[in-house]
């Protein structure tokens, strides 16, 4: 019973922690993706990078990694893959413990029931075969199985809810990756043009003063 109590507390703690994390991770993600497209369409790399850096959600961090790589002339796809894997790992964190408790809790309850029944039969033999001696013990032993099933159901509901949240957030990460890949080429072209414009302006200024 003590192990089942620990499992139930663990499910509650993981559920609270994951709820807070997913609320932070998916905060206005769809709005961010729409605004990200608009920033890319204006073809101003500095604005896009500044916009991504202000967004601390998982989607924003993945997009920022790709934009930084594009501005620096690095491999955008590689940067996006690394950032995607890191954020996906954070999104999946501790969900495997919920899955384990779903399976473990009924087994612990069954183990408690079996040990309780063994003890009941021992008492039955000591008390010279009195029927009431064993029925009371079996009733108490079955409580362990019922408790284990309740904890397992609780863990299953919590795990299913966050598995759905995981899928939603991974879909948003995929959207962010696709958006950055679609517009990153334009940023790579824009950077040299901006440099050439600056050099041309400097040369024009020198000719004016001469």
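^ Assign residues to that structure.
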């Amino acid at each position: 019973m003590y192990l089942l109590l620990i499992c139930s507390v663990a499910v509650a703690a993981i559920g609270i922690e994951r709820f807070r994390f997913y609320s932070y991770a998916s905060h206005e993600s769809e709005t961010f993706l729409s605004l990200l497209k608009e920033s890319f369409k204006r073809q101003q790399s500095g604005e896009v990078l500044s916009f991504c850096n202000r967004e601390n959600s998982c989607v924003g961090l993945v997009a920022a990694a790709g934009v930084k790589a594009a501005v620096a002339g690095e491999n955008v796809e590689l940067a996006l893959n690394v950032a995607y894997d890191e954020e996906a790992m954070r999104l999946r964190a501790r969900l495997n413990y919920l899955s384990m408790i779903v399976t473990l809790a009924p087994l612990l309850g069954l183990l408690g029931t079996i040990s309780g029944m063994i003890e009941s039969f021992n008492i039955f033999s000591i008390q010279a075969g009195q029927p009431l001696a064993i029925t009371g013990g079996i009733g108490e032993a079955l409580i362990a199985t019922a408790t284990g099933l309740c904890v397992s159901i609780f863990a299953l509901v919590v795990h299913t809810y966050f598995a759905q949240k995981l899928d939603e957030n991974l879909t948003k990460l995929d959207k962010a990756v696709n958006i950055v890949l679609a517009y990153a080429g334009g940023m790579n072209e824009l950077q040299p043009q901006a440099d050439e414009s600056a050099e041309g302006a400097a040369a024009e200024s020198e000719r004016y003063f001469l």
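The radius of gyration is 30 Å.
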